[in-house]
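Supplementary Methods S3. Input chains for the assembly prediction are listed below.
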Amino acid sequence: MKIKSVKGTNDYLPAEAELRDYLQNKILEVYTSNGYQRIMTPAIEDAENLDKSDGGENLNLIFNIMKRGDKLQKALDGGDKLFDLGLRYDLTLPLSRYFANNRDKLLLPAKCIQIGNVYRAERPQKGRLREFVQCDIDVIGSSSYSTEVELINTTAKALNEMGIGSFTVKINDRRILRSMLISCGFGEDSLDSISITFDKMDKIGKDGVMAELAEKGLDKAAIEKFGEVLDKPMTLDGLDGICGSDAVSNVKNIIDAVRELSGGKFNIEFDISLVRGQGYYTGTVFEVRSDKYSGAVAGGGRYDNLIGKFIGENVPAVGFSIGFERIFGILCESGYTIPDSKKKIAMLYEPEKIVTAIKEADKLRDKYRVTLIEKPKKLGKYLDKVKEAGYFGWCFAGEAIKELN
Amino acid sequence: MKIKSVKGTNDYLPAEAELRDYLQNKILEVYTSNGYQRIMTPAIEDAENLDKSDGGENLNLIFNIMKRGDKLQKALDGGDKLFDLGLRYDLTLPLSRYFANNRDKLLLPAKCIQIGNVYRAERPQKGRLREFVQCDIDVIGSSSYSTEVELINTTAKALNEMGIGSFTVKINDRRILRSMLISCGFGEDSLDSISITFDKMDKIGKDGVMAELAEKGLDKAAIEKFGEVLDKPMTLDGLDGICGSDAVSNVKNIIDAVRELSGGKFNIEFDISLVRGQGYYTGTVFEVRSDKYSGAVAGGGRYDNLIGKFIGENVPAVGFSIGFERIFGILCESGYTIPDSKKKIAMLYEPEKIVTAIKEADKLRDKYRVTLIEKPKKLGKYLDKVKEAGYFGWCFAGEAIKELN
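Predicted structure tokens for the full assembly:
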């Protein structure tokens, strides 16, 4: 039998699992005390729902779950699809379905927290997992910019609690991005394709982006003008005449409010090069970049059309997702230790005295985490291992604690 | 698009999600303070591992995940299996694999906590879900009866914390069960099949069991003798001469110790009719039955051979799993409320005053969970909904809280 975990997934050792729990609880605590409420959806979703969800590239990464029994036989015989379920690739599609299914029972606007596993059949590489945790807050039923302000402010609070150091929030609006591209001379129907290329700016640089756009056979003059924008990114104030004033003043309002609330703890700035991959975003998009570690640690945006697919009427929605695995990775590498956690004690006992041992251990459990362990044959060697495992001390049941140092 | 969650899975509303978190945290807290440590494994496992795992009936309930790309094409062309992954049906197989994969990094005996989703393609019915949470503690690397004593005592502590009322622990040993069946006159090779039938005693009664055994074409005299045992269940003391003394004294030791630790808060008793379905159990098996609600709320046993399948040497192991969904169901139905949770306040604000509103809300957040909500058009109607959603009170930003009652 194979002893490794499935490719792209992880087994977590006790210290890692403890850190994951600690971080998720911190996030949940901040979100909950800020008035968002946790909801839960299944990790398995209807295959057709997933397929129709505007998930962009992620739709190619769905793990499909096979039909069973008669259904499978029928599909095999008839040449139909062999699967009818899939693992969710994010938490936004499930949330939209959830809202459609439960909106009569929810207080609107619905301010939801989701923390859960999602699955993508990514090519395994450092920092890309096939099973990973997302932590989202979303607000469904409000189109006011104040919703973005609160989402960004709350996410920033959670990030500040986690000790990843200083960070910057980047914000853009899909409508501004589209206007800018049109002002360069690109046609309406090429905008999605250009955005996909533009989104790779981080990885392939300006030259790579220009080359890919040329390969796509787009208008040369437009590409050239676009290159000028990349050299000297547009500011919000420079957008006059290019873009309708609604989207611009909306972003300005968000930046002003978030800046006032930030207390200097983090930055927020407009960035016309911010795309965010998902096809379902319709308005603001935002991302948090750690000032010390590369890559985004959180991202989100407004998706006003996705829920409409379920209920046939448009419902405004906006969400922000913390890149949990990125933060977990950063803290693991930096040797982060959980503050104020109870010290661990190994209490050794003789098996036939288990009752006394449990009673003795219970006496210490207000103050310590006490693990009962049968007295080993070779005490010295064993205590080395106990120390290695991060225990503060040990004792025989009923005797005094000896520190391991 | 389909708005219902996939058949056999649930969407959880905020109050339900909060109760699930509360209960899982309680369990984790008890287990952790008793010296067990949480580990985490992926929900997806290698399909062959799952297939070879002695999971009994559960092997027929595995959700298979399809191969992808070239692999899938090759399988389709060559008539091979179309899947290479599956969703885990319990947490014991993943734990065994995990132990094999990580044992050099673990302190032995490994005292592990697992809380996670498992998946079974059950025929949907009340109380049977296709995605559900299991909460397990396991000890790997100890064959002493003291391990069972501590597992049972710790699980009982967790159950006591959750307010499901009084309960009884039933205990048996697979070796005793087998000896009893052999003493009735059944052949060694029919024991597994008989156990599967015997396990249904709860559902189909004695007559059903007898009928099914007859259908299976087993020896009539043996069935008759077995019927006598069912009428007058054997006690531990009545097992002399039927069964080796090791298993009997082992169970006696466990019962004596657990009884002494229980402080009269719960019962423990021997029950020769206790089977537990899993094929991998080799020694003690146990189950917790609520005195008030029917069905098991926890179950477990010793599986000394499962880990050997991964590492080629036998490693003793024993585990206890809390039936989380059963307990969640009981508490939901009984209208359980979470003790000492912070009261919820709805704070209404004008969108353009979001900064002030957030600052005002933060002032109250030590004491309350404050949800910011844009001032609605029809205040009276909206406040009815706020009350319905379980809020304690409301206010305009910066003004005094008014109770909703």
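The mean pLDDT of chain A is 93. The first strand of chain A starts at residue 37 and ends at 38.
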